[in-house]
Amino acid sequence: MTILLSDPRVAAVAVHEQGDPLVRLDEGFGPARAAVRAGLAERLRAARELLPAGIALRVVEGHRTPAAQQAVITAYEAEVRAAHPGVQGAELRHLTSRFVAPVEVAPHVAGAAVDLTLAEVPGDELDLGTPIDATPEVSGGACYFAAPGISASARARRDLLARVLSAAGLVNYPTEWWHWSYGDRYWALMTGAPAAMYGPASVAVPA
Q: Which is nearest to 129 in space by CA: 115, 110, 146, 143?
């Protein structure tokens, strides 16, 4: 059974902040030059080295401020309410967390998560079955990493993404094939680590 980020077990994970600064990813990860914790950046570079020649990791988002995270929550809650009339309270929080984490445990707010895909070098992003940020409602559930019904080539690319990122120590949020994290509460729960290494990142994002 999938553990969602709204699960109380995630919030119960202790945080032993390691103090890694936020750093900008190099241009080899794409034009966004997302900000992430230094420990995550190191592991993304290691994952990149495991890819076949001509294929790159394309990171489209990393750190978010709490305000930016809340904006995503608010927008998606409206979509959930439209798709599930009458939903509210704990059920709304549960459904919303399939796509966006509560602010207090959000891996992006900790600078510990990236949204990423594969791309040709040089060239366009490759097809992994849905666009990044395709919601469960819009994609019919195809955004889930293990979703059936995607093409064989998209499945092979998702599996490649998983191999290199898992080898580098990252974990996937299974409702979003593109979301991978390291050092946050969800990562700690999934790996059995005694505590998360990164809480909300309050330091300034480098230029």
A: 143
How many contiguous H segments (helices) and E segments (strands) does the chain have?
Answer: 7, 6
Instruction: Take residue 35 and report the two structure tokens written for it.
Output: 């900000």
DSSP letter string over 194-205?
SSBS-----SPP
Q: What are phi and psi of 110, to 5 degrees?
A: -80, -5
Lookup: tokens for 168: 């580098």
In the chain the domains, ranked by start, together with CATH numbers, are 8-191 (3.30.1380.10)
Per-residue pLDDT of the chain (207 residues; tens, 9 = 90+): 789 999 999 999 999 999 999 999 999 999 999 999 999 999 999 999 999 999 999 999 999 999 999 998 888 888 888 888 888 888 888 888 787 888 899 999 999 999 999 999 988 999 999 999 999 989 999 999 999 999 999 999 999 999 999 999 999 999 999 999 999 999 999 999 999 999 998 766 666
Among 116, 117, 121, which Cα is nearest to 157's?
Answer: 117
